[in-house]
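Ticket #4471: structure export looks truncated?
Reporter: QA, pipeline team
Priority: medium

Steps to reproduce: submit the single chain below to the structure queue and open the exported record.
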Amino acid sequence: MMITHPRGLYSINYDPDKKLIYETPVGLWTKEDYNEYHEQYVNKIGPAIGKQPWAAITDVRKYKMSDLGDVMAKHTDWLVENNIQCAAVIVDSAIVKMQINRAVSSKFPQQAFLNEDEAAAWLKTKGF
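Actual output as written to the record:
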């Protein structure tokens, strides 16, 4: 299942065989953008996943960090409630990787990587 934002702010691709979501946020988001993205999870991804364990790879190399802590926290809570097991984040620099790995949420295992191969290898160790 592939979901893309009409203005190109994100793509979300769910692979039901691997129980893996690959998502790519792009640009600077408003609260409305993030809420619309979250609704895609609630209305489309959630029903597709059911209550199965699943994982995510998020490629943030083209995303501009936004001050959206409250809506991001709401989305993180939804991920946990819907059985996410772990998440790999792809970043564009070793400094960002280090910062994310120090600051990640403790609600589920997360790790930052510099490329998709590293992220996929880590997820494989987690069973995905």
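Status: closed, not a bug. The export was complete when the record was re-opened. Leaving a note from the reviewer for reference: The chain has a mean pLDDT of 88.
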